[in-house]
TrEMBL record, chain A:
The gene is Oscp1. This is OSCP1 protein. The lineage of its organism: Eukaryota, Metazoa, Chordata, Craniata, Vertebrata. PANTHER family: OXIDORED-NITRO DOMAIN-CONTAINING PROTEIN (PTHR21439), PROTEIN OSCP1 (PTHR21439:SF0). One of its GO terms (cellular component) is plasma membrane. It comes from Nycticryphes semicollaris.
UniProtKB/TrEMBL annotation, chain B:
It comes from the Eukaryota. The keyword Repeat applies. GO terms for cellular component: motile cilium. It holds the Pfam family WDR54. Keywords: Repeat, WD repeat. Residues 1-334 form the WD repeat-containing protein 54 beta-propeller domain. This is WDR54 protein.
Length: 389, 336
């Protein structure tokens, strides 16, 4: 519904993705001198992080992202992250990519749900960006790009009203509806129940601008307070100490959106029994996808123009595994429940002429010259831009 | 005071949208109907009062005349008029009106996209029956559309467009009891927190405007000339409808209030918010001083749930229903 949701969704999910990749790369890295040709080193890790961050914050891409537009469908957005994750020498199998996306989305869903005020989603975004700046502190060029995006966030969002922020939050919650994948680190920290639902505390500081519940004041026709009573509940709330900073630099106060992973806390996801409403999920697939056109365009372009980043020469592709072992990854791929499949269309690097013709034909049919008010194809431009990077 | 009763299972979970629960209780019949919105569809459940026997129906948001594009529903509510009951759905595309069981669509009004500034969200939200023969619906540009509803048939027309709000309408409520003279028939609320009180008729007249104080008003009720408003900072405020005078201020919830309801026979007020709590309050008027009073009656904590819809199931307020974000059921509570 809100046309300003996509930048926040993209940047926060991207931030979570970087946290996870960084953790996995550190976990799998070998000291430089000892590493074989196909093993990760610290240098490789930094390079991967720099490559992905550079792609994420590309100027043209950001310009397109910030234009007011409807949210992408889950499928379309997943495709964007597939592309982003492969913006470097790193390779991920389908199973690892699925797991990565599960973790990213559940983490951000948690953050959105627990934000005290809708406006605090901006603080969560700033936390992610602050951490991203830490990842690339030795690369001033990219740092500039990130700061630019920071400034654009401040410009676009700090003037929005609380009501508009709530609409953004509601739009995000519709996007995350019915997702209850259990994340091991959340279960351990007791922020998620075994049924996949997040724990919502009824204690702690109230949001900035809210009073601790309990007081009732009544006034007469002159506006004088004439009666005061109190009520109590099971909740145990306190007044907040200070508000987080919405400036380029500052103490955000809020912890949501900061990096919760470390090398010693690996993350696993549990697939079984996490989807209660199969009926509603099926319905989602039946309802026509508004971005079906954009997705087909994107794929067509990709197939037609794909310059695979498979490293040539002496470099070999480095595969990253989101699981502990290769066997685990294989097993996850085989046992992933059908209803949880993201149904991402596999991008074939080989360019089969027949296939390209087919898609071009479809593409031709879909490009109708009807005067739709929102037919400027913004979604296409955004995704197409990724190809050019 | 209230104890939990058997829940009603839904085919899909409720969305985190304001006032996302509507209840229809037809007098003389044991049947109560419930509806909650889930993205592009709405769950309509008909239950017998003894809790046995349910029938489910899911209605889809109409996609509009143009090329394929899904629409998200923002609200569903039954409008009870003297001659008929209609189920009204509001969405990003427009307004759909159905016969009360959801079987036939009797009217469709498409929102004029050009009326809204580019880049702004477009949707309808806020539904109430007023003046015995009108249904009022709000839009994201701040307009309130007044539809004239005939006794039967599909000849529904736009009777008037009210242009007092500058921000997206959040909720609309009609007088549920007896309005004292000059107190108005209808109250409309918007994203900025501004409230407008109207008298309904061939031409609606603005009676008073209650200014915002910096918080969104997400839900509003009108009873015996008292406006009850729920805000984004967790407060409930009571105002005199005729004058706009503030009568009570309650620090009710720790987070954004999503829904209010009122039982007209007793003056009980129900509130639900993101903080997982549902509170029951009692409104009254001191006969000597004419002051408005409110006291807290009961609290329910719906564990790990952000409440998005609350409704009394009867006019005395002896039972109520609750739903929350991601919840695929309607919880019910009744007086012990």
């Amino acid at each position: 519904m809100s046309m300003r949701t996509l930048p926040l969704l993209f940047l926060n999910l991207g931030g979570e993705m970087l946290y996870i990749l960084d953790q996995r790369l550190r976990a799998q890295s070998i000291p430089g001198e000892k590493a074989r040709k196909d093993e990760w080193t610290d240098v490789d890790r930094k390079r991967v992080m720099n490559d992905i961050i550079t792609t994420m914050f590309n100027k043209k891409f950001m310009e397109e992202l910030f234009k007011p537009q409807e949210l992408y469908s889950k499928k379309a957005l997943r495709t964007v992250y597939d592309r982003l994750a492969h913006a470097s020498i790193m390779r991920l199998n389908q199973a690892s990519m699925d797991k990565l996306y599960d973790l990213m989305t559940m983490a951000f869903k948690y953050q959105v749900l627990l934000c005290p005020r809708p406006k605090d989603i901006l603080l969560v975004t700033f936390n992610h960006l602050d951490a991203i700046k830490d990842f690339i502190q030795d690369a001033p060029g990219i740092l500039n790009q990130v700061d630019e995006t920071f400034r654009q966030l401040i410009e676009t969002y700090t003037s929005l009203s609380a009501g508009e922020f709530q609409l953004i939050r509601q739009t995000l919650l519709i996007f995350f509806q019915d997702m209850h994948i259990r994340v091991s680190i959340f279960l351990k920290d007791k922020v998620q129940n075994s049924n996949g639902r997040f724990v919502l505390p009824i204690s702690g500081p109230v949001p900035w601008g809210t009073e601790v519940p309990g007081l009732i004041r009544m006034f007469n026709h002159n506006g004088d307070e004439v009666k005061r009573t109190e009520f109590t509940t099971d909740g145990n709330y306190v007044t907040p100490q200070r508000e987080g900073s919405f400036d380029l630099y500052g103490d955000r106060v809020l912890k949501l959106g900061t990096n919760m992973y470390s090398v010693s806390r690996p993350v696993e996801t549990h697939m079984s029994g996490s989807y209660k409403n199969l009926a509603s999920h099926t319905k989602e697939n039946i309802v026509p996808n508004p971005l079906a056109k954009e997705e087909l365009n994107f794929l067509a372009r990709l197939l037609g123009e794909l310059e695979t980043k498979t490293p040539g020469g002496s470099e070999t592709g480095f595969r990253l595994n989101l699981f502990m072992t290769d066997e685990e990854e294989e097993h996850a791929a085989l046992t992933r429940p059908e209803e949880l499949s993201y149904k991402v269309v596999t991008i074939e690097a080989t360019q089969e002429p027949g296939r390209r013709e087919e898609l071009s034909r479809i593409l031709g049919e879909m490009e109708v010259a009807d005067p739709r008010p929102d037919s400027s194809g913004k979604g296409e431009d955004l995704l197409a831009l990724m190809d050019g990077l | 005071m209230y104890r939990k009763e058997k829940s009603i299972q839904l085919k899909s979970s409720s969305a985190a949208l304001y006032n996302n629960l509507s209840v229809l209780r037809l007098p003389g019949r044991q049947l109560a109907c419930f509806s909650t919105v889930h993205g592009p569809s709405v769950n309509v459940v008909s239950a017998a009062a003894d809790g046995l026997g349910f029938s489910h129906r899911q209605l889809q948001a109409k996609e509009g005349g143009m090329a394929v594009s899904t629409s998200i529903l923002t609200q569903a509510a039954w409008c009870v008029l003297p001659s008929r009951v209609l189920l009204v759905l509001t969405s990003q595309k427009g307004i759909q009106m159905y016969e009360s069981d959801g079987s036939i669509m009797v009217y469709w009004h498409a929102l004029d996209v050009t009326e809204h500034p580019p880049g702004q969200a477009v949707f309808a939200r806020g539904i109430a029956a007023a003046g015995g023969r009108f249904i009022c619906v709000g839009t994201s540009s701040g307009l309130v559309l007044v539809f004239g509803i005939p006794h039967k048939g599909t000849n529904i027309t736009v009777s008037e467009v009210l242009e007092q709000h500058h921000d997206a309408i959040t909720d609309i409520a009609a007088e549920l009891g007896q309005a004292p003279d000059g107190a108005g028939d209808l109250v409309t609320a918007d994203d900025s927190g501004t409230l407008c009180v109207w008298s309904a008729g061939e031409e609606f007249t603005l009676l008073s405007k209650i200014p915002a104080f910096g918080c969104t008003c997400s839900s509003v009720k009108l009873w015996n000339g008292v406006v009850a408003a729920g805000y984004g900072n967790g407060q409930i405020r009571l105002y005199e409808a005729a004058t706009g005078l503030l009568r009570a201020e309650v620090n009710a919830h720790a987070r954004w209030i999503y829904a209010l309801d009122l039982a007209p026979e007793t003056g009980k007020l129900l509130s639900g918010a993101e903080d997982s709590f549902v509170h029951v309050w009692k409104l009254s008027r001191n006969p000597d001083t004419n002051d408005v009073e409110i006291k807290h009656c009961h609290a329910e904590c719906v564990t790990d749930t952000q409440v998005c819809g609350v409704r009394f199931c009867d006019p005395e307020g002896t039972s109520f229903a609750v739903t929350g974000y991601d919840l695929s059921e309607i919880l019910r509570y009744g007086q012990a």
